Amino acid sequence: MNRFSRDRRNLQELRDSCGHLGIDLFSTTVITESDRESFHLSIRDISRALEYAVVIGIRLSDPVLDTIADAPTWTYYYHYRQVNYALDNAALFITSRCHGMGYRALPIPASQIMDWTRLRGHLSHRSIAEKAGLGWRGKNNLLINPDFGACVRYATVLTDMPLPSPQPAQVEMECGDCRACQDICPAGAIGDDLSDFSVDRCAAQLRRFSRSEKLNTMICGLCVKVCKGKLNN
Ligand code: B12
Ligand code: SF4
Ligand code: SF4
Q1: What is the pTM of this model?
Q2: CATH number belonging to the domain at 3-174, selected among 3.30.70, 3.40.109, 3.40.50, 1.25.40
Q3: 172 Cα–ligand 1 center, Å
Q4: pLDDT tens, position by position, 98-154
Q5: Per the CB 3.0–4.6 Å rule, which of 13, 73, 110, 230 could disulfide with 155?
């Protein structure tokens, strides 16, 4: 069997075994040394032996997002938490499947902050999902999937199981004339271009919401709920 067929067969076998996990988006990519430079130090060296990534996404519920008018709600908070659990469980299952197929795997938590000063996780799920062809980086700094917009949460599993890189996308991957997220952001954190995005303004707003809504969690959801990908244009 040549390398191409082996990688495709691994992908097929892994994807087929995940049917019951409620995963809406599933893709794979190859991790390079330059990708690894942005990984948290605790996993950077370990990840050198894990050259492939499986990235999964679970779509958020529209009716749950509809409960958000001008601030995050408890309904959204609960959903956010449960989707994180579901992603972490799915990543654990994928890890176990990799083990079963004779490989090593490292599940990366869906939403764990490792560096509170710089506000960073182990690695950026949205960057890996972008590389795996699942969407583009929108003006709101989120990963925009053509079908589900920003209404998807992601998790990653790093592995040494050889897996294919994604095929080039068949759809246009850009925001076009849409400004829905700019208009709704209460912090003025979103500009005309991704490079104008202000993490500091966003983080300050999330801290205010955490106190005012008594959530004790840095969530918001406004620039998520208005972003429906291709449907916005
Ligand atoms: C810390 C964190 C925050 C911080 C800010 C983080 C930041 N600096 O951007 C705060 C608390 C403010 C925050 C806010 C929110 N967050 Co948040 N957050 C995270 C977390 C835990 C870590 C993000 C991180 O490490 N960023 C570091 C920066 C430097 O990475 P980056 O922005 O992607 O950009 C770099 C990379 O792209 C790199 N790069 C470029 N190309 C490539 C290629 C590869 C392969 C690699 C590896 C890197 C790379 O260069 C860029 C510049 O350095 C992630 C979960 C995770 N582990 O990914 C969730 C995550 C990003 N958050 C998410 C969400 C939804 C939110 C909120 C909407 C809150 C909410 N849930 O209601 C807001 C939205 C803010 C916004 N518009 O961006 C989702 C995004 C989903 C999506 N569809 O994009 C994530 C992915 C959680 C998840 N499991 O789905 N978040
Ligand atoms: S709401 Fe519109 S402008 Fe904002 S990220 Fe989504 S598609 Fe792009
Ligand atoms: S999460 Fe809220 S504050 Fe942050 S950019 Fe989106 S709408 Fe603005």
Answers
A1: 0.95
A2: 3.40.109
A3: 23
A4: 999 999 999 999 999 999 999 999 999 999 999 999 999 999 999 999 999 999 999
A5: 110
* Residue 167: pLDDT over 80: no
Q: What residues does each domain of the chain span?
A: 3-174
| 19-54 tens-digit pLDDT | 899 999 999 999 999 999 999 999 999 999 999 999
For a substitution probing ligand 2, which of 137, 139, 193, 195 has the most ligand atoms within 8 Å of its CB? 139
Nearest ligand 1 atom, CA 218: 11
Residue 202 CA, closest ligand 1 atom number? 12
- Ligand 2 first shell, C-beta below 6 A: 138-140, 144, 149-150, 175, 178-181, 226-227, 232
Residue list, ligand 3 pocket, CB within 6 Å: 140, 185-187, 189-190, 202, 205, 220, 222-223
SS (H, E, C) the chain: CCHHHHHHHHHHHHHHCCHHHCCCEEEEEECCHHHHCCCCHHHHCHHHHCCEEEEEEEECCHHHHHCCCCCCCHHHHHHHHHHHHHHHHHHHHHHHHHHHCCCCEEEECCCCCCECCCCECCCCHHHHHHHCCCCEECCCCCEEECCCECCEEEEEEEECCCCCCCCCCCCCCCCCCCCHHHHHCCCCCCCCCHHHCCHHHHHHHHHHHHHHCCCCCCCCCHHHHCCCHHHHC
Per-residue pLDDT tens for 169-186? 766 778 999 999 999 999
